[in-house]
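As the next step, I selected for study a record pairing a protein sequence with its backbone structure tokens, which the following lines show:
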Amino acid sequence: MRSSSSSPRLLNRVPWASSYPAAVALALLALTPFLVLTTATSLMRQPLMEQLGATPFELQLAVGLSNAGYAFGAVAAADLILRVPRRWVYFVCEGGFVVAAALALIAPGIGLFAPALVMLGVFTGILLVVSLPPLITRHGVDRLPTTAAVISLGLFGMVTLGPLIGGLIGSYGGWRLLFVGVTALSALGLTIGVLTFEHNEPLRPGARFDWYAIPPAVLATALPFFGVAWLTRGQFASVWFWLPLVVGVLTAVVLVGGQYWRREPLMPVRPISNTLPVTGIAAAMVAGATFTTLIELTEAYLLAGPRYSPVRVGGLLTAQVVGIAAAALLVRRLMRTRWLPVMALGGLLSVAAGGILLLTVSPGNASAIVPAAAVFLGFGAGAGVTPALFLAGLSVPAPAIGSIFALVELLRSEAAFLVGPVLLHLALDKGIEDGFKFATAITLTITLVGASLLVALFALGTDRLHPPDLDAWVTGKQGAYRSPPLLARLRKS
């Protein structure tokens, strides 16, 4: 609803409140600057370390904790929007993002750059939960397929451009110029937000701070990423690796389990603990983890094996954009049909195809094999993750979609950004030639086993697919999917 306030204050005037293009721009500008950084930093590590005076561990810790901050921010947002209007959360976090980006830009050393990068992650995680639900729910069901395609192409398209941007900086320098662009884009996003974000009431104004979710979420995100970062200065047997990793992952399990059993959970796990959303979320976790791992392994191999320049490596991987674009178009076409769950599983098969191609790569054929594999990987990421977001979000009434996105992003981020560094360290330990093939084979095995298990889970849970009832969903009274319980067919027999 539009504000009925007659206050003349600028922040209560929203001339673009009903503009769909403005809402799309708001969401993309809130999310894409940080998402580009998540895939750009690996190819520009050398200039960052040299100019910031950072060790490999310090830089990896900064990057890892920024990813942890993104996952935590999504959970924190689910709590904030209960008591604070989304509009004000957006203003504070987008403004905070501008300040953090500016601090990273002027940072003389890793001591300022690292906390600034972490805050960029936290603010982006919050902004995802704040900005995407209004874009999805407030512009009519007819635009929902287009919205899904825009989210897929905008978010993952920017992620797939990260290697090219990082490669340019890795070869020619100028990382501060990148942060000039990040700061400018976030400032533009704040300006559009002032003109677009409508006034709204909190979801539960009397809600209290959720001590059962927020503190565990800090541990579940920060500890595993610290442990993985330690591998840059230690070994797998180090207690500083496995203890934070194990404690953090167990805390995440306890967090999700606790949300399932709570009467008024911050993230409603119980409504999505049935066949369609479970298989979708699991497919997103596996697709995200294996996609990210294969990209990181390929970058390391091309840099150390045939010794390609960072810009050449980034250029070869830019073919991912073709796959992402194809996935976005297919999401748009299938959004209102019964085939969206099948697409989520098909994304895993595309990632597997990319992994099979990478097993054949050599210094002599890398320029041909890597772009072909990148197309499959890009399609797999878009087809595996975006449908999963909507399978989960459409399984609950529309007002709960923000909390569901928080849960999905927490689980997906943990999987996507933890597996890659571990297998990359394993590959480097064995020598890049043999280690690359070995780690790629492990990643491919994870993909195929995961796909097989999810197909079985899907087949045992449902015998008939149906299109989502989007008209009923948007009213806020019910989910769009009537998903059967897990293993429903076995229960019947």
Observations:
- Residues 211-265 form one domain.
- Confidence is low (pLDDT under 50) at residues 1-8.
- The chain is about 75% helix and 0% strand.
- The radius of gyration is 22 Å.
